[in-house]
Structure formats: C-alpha cells, structure tokens
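Hi everyone, sorry if this is the wrong subforum. Our group has a chain we'd like a structural model of before ordering constructs, and none of us has done structure prediction before. Sequence below.
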Amino acid sequence: MIATTDEPAASAAAATPAGPAVGVGVIGLGDRGREVLHEAALLPELSVTAICDIYDPFVKRAQAIAPKAKPYSDYKALLADPALTAVILTTPSNLHKDIALAALQAGKHLYCEAPLASTVEDAKAIASAGLHAAPKQIFQAGLQKRVHPQYIHVDKFVKTGALGTPAFCRSQWHYKTSWRKASPNAAEQQMLNWRLSKVTSPGLAGEVGIHSIDVMNWYLDALPTAVTGFGSIVFWKDGRDVPDTVQAVLEYPNGVHMAYDATLVNSFDDTYDILHGSQSAMFLRGDKGWMVNEADAPLEGWIVYARKEKINDDTGIVLVADATKLLALGKMPGKEAPPPEKTMLHFALKSFAESINTSKPSVSGPLEGYRATVAALVTNTAINTASRIEFTQDMFALV
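Answer:
Right subforum, don't worry. Here is the predicted structure as tokens:
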C-alpha cells in the first residue's frame, strides 16, 4: 500500500524549518512577483529583504506587501546586497537570461519561474549555468507540481504500476481573462503586455501548458517525440498576435499521446490532468487526486477501506497525500476536516528554502526545468505554425 509521500517522523520534521530563514530578493514585481511576496510572508523559512523592478508603480505596490524589504530598480545593485543569499526571479520570461546568469555568478541560490526563458537558446544558457553552479548553490525551476505533495503522492501510484499500461493523457487550462494590462504611457503599455506579442511571449503553451507537459514527462518517465499544434485568436481581437485558444497533441514513446488545450475565452471545467491506463485512470485537479479503477483491476486490500467519491458517472478512490500522518494521529484519511488550503506556490517556495538549508539539490532542478521549457516552447512553435514538429533527443540535452 502507498499511503503517503513521507513517514510520520519525516512529516513532523518538515513542520519546522530545517534552518534559519533564508534572506531572499524578489526580482520582478508584477502579478506573479506580488503573489510570491504574499506567500513568502507566510513562510518562516523565508525572509524577503529586497525587492526589485524597473517599473516604479510595481515597486510601490510590492512595498505595501513587504514593507521591510529594501527596494531596488537595478537588479545588479540587489545582487550586490550581502544580506541576500537567494533570488526569486519572476520577471517576464524573455528577460530571465541576463538576470539569472548574473544571480548565479554572484553566488546566489536561484528560483527561476517556468518557463526558464522564451527561447530555447536562452533556456539552455540558464540551465547550463544552474547545472554547473557551485556545489552548494541551489537552482530550482518553477515547476510547482514537481514539488507538490499531492503530485508526488500520485507519482508513487503511477510508478508502482497502479495505472497499468499507459494509454493516453489529457490536460487543460481554462480561464477567461484578457491578459491585457492598461497604462496611459504607450511604451509602458507595450512593456506590460509582453504576453500578447510573439516576439516576447511563449504563449499559452509556455506560460501555463509547461506545467502539465512536465507532469506527463515525469509520470511517463519519457520525453515527447513529436507535437502537433493549432491556435487562433477567437475572442480577444485587440491587436495581439498571440493565440487566446490553443490545442496540441504531444506524442510519447509506445504510442502514448497527450492532448492539451488552453483558452483565455472560457472558464468552464477549469484545470486538470488525467492519465488513462489499462488498470485505472489518475485524475488530478488542483491539490486533489483520485484513482478510478477498471473493473478487472487487481483489488488490493487497502482499497476496501479507502474513501470514495463520485467522479462523473464513476467512483474514484481519493488519494490522500498525508494518509500515513493522519493514521498515526488516529484519524481517517479523507474523512477528517480538510487542512487549511496551501497554494502550489507555497509548497514550491518552501521546497526551495528547504533545499538551501539542507544543501540538497531540488527535484525541480536545471535539467527538469530545461526539458520542460524545450517541450513547451516547441509546442508553442507548432501552435503558431499549425504544424507537426519532431523532437530529437539532443534537443533535450545539456552539455
């Protein structure tokens, strides 16, 4: 039986910081940067001591969240701050390269949001630098699902064969939003709307699809061999050239395909990842997971006692990531009141701090970040050109 991602003793140890609070600087104070500041304020493992952005209104908004942090407009000045041991990079992806390389060169631990960059060349430069950084320098790519307890838990079921023979996968991201930012200044408006131009944006596949693609790479323990994509601007006809709705099919070894779609036009059915296999389907939505078994799947004893829920017309077995911990406390997994919700970003930042304090490389390191970025960026190219593109193994290699 797979009951949890860790044993009770490990869970108890994880409840307190593994070391002193890590002094971090956040570079890039747009929507994502401010999310980071909010989450970091809730983590005793982190202490935000500096913030940086070239856009003054963003700096002022960020100061309201982190009033004790020293503000900078020049990232080079921030990197020279001896109080900082780590940097969280949340600028637009097309600006990552120079900042990431400078941060690593300055000896800082680096959390770099995904995708690593908006071009494969820049992503390779960043990942290579992260791979060859000083032995105790931590590089973590912002692939949040890699370090999320629920996704780690489900991976154990997949790896022990509960899925059976993988058949196909599906993922989606639906959220109605324009992505457009307003500014009375034309130059500032262009800067703020970097996501709407193909020159600077990795598109929906790069901005959001990368996380689902990475999950399939991880769970299938494989890399895609080809991708076919389609995209169009069906609703937000405001001068952008980045599609607001996309579909893609990624091909994996052994005839397995992943179907992916994302849209800025409609929010129905939200976001999820599904793997279908000969024995079961694994369904993940947010921080929850279910396993729906086939009638001919082996009936293991623990399944009789597991909590079940209706999933459409089927019955799903609730996969509870902290089951062992709950049992040790005399509680029934899935039947107790759910713990306070913690975002994926919470677990990502916590993992980053723990890697720094324990000197253990992140499981979402430079190679994982690079491979996911390559897969997502090539998928974006296939979408923009309505074509099929084959991957070669050397495309995923870091020298």
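For your construct planning: The domain at 148-340+366-393 is CATH 3.30.360.10 (Dihydrodipicolinate Reductase; domain 2). The chain has 13 helices and 16 strands.
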